[in-house]
Design brief:
115 residues, mainly beta, 5-stranded antiparallel sheet, two-stranded antiparallel ribbon, 2 helices, 8% helix, tRNA-bd_dom, NA-bd_OB-fold, tRNA-binding, Tyrosine-tRNA_ligase_regulator
Length: 115
């Protein structure tokens, strides 16, 4: 277990725009170095955006229509020719391989702010 880390700059955390999204499309991503999906998420009035995520411990069926928590203002990143537009958040297991996606309680709506 890692010791608790003290924040260097709490303002940096609060500058991250965390939003609720709903996964609406999942595609295989064979060009990725590590196994990954290309995932489209609906953010309500903010529209649909794409990301690449190493969450292959979930099947396509388990991902579709799932509510997720995402950081949407970190900029875009090119991954194997694909543009990832946001970061899908999850807890990383002790083996650094298994990712458990974060999700809000039922009733949360796409686009809502995570506070």
């Amino acid at each position: 277990m890692q010791p608790e880390q003290k924040p260097d700059n709490p303002d940096a955390f609060f500058a991250v725009d965390l939003r609720v999204g709903r996964i609406v499309e999942v595609r295989p991503f064979p060009k990725a170095r590590k196994p990954a999906w290309q995932i489209a998420v609906d953010f309500g009035e903010f529209g649909k955006r794409w990301t690449s995520a190493q969450v292959t411990n979930y099947t396509e069926a388990e991902l579709l229509d799932r509510l997720v928590v995402c950081a949407v203002n970190l900029g875009k990143k090119r991954i194997a020719g694909f543009t990832s537009e946001f970061l899908l958040l999850g807890a990383i297991g002790a083996d650094d391989e298994l990712v458990r996606l974060l999700r809000p309680d039922d009733g949360a709506q796409p686009g809502e702010v995570i506070a």
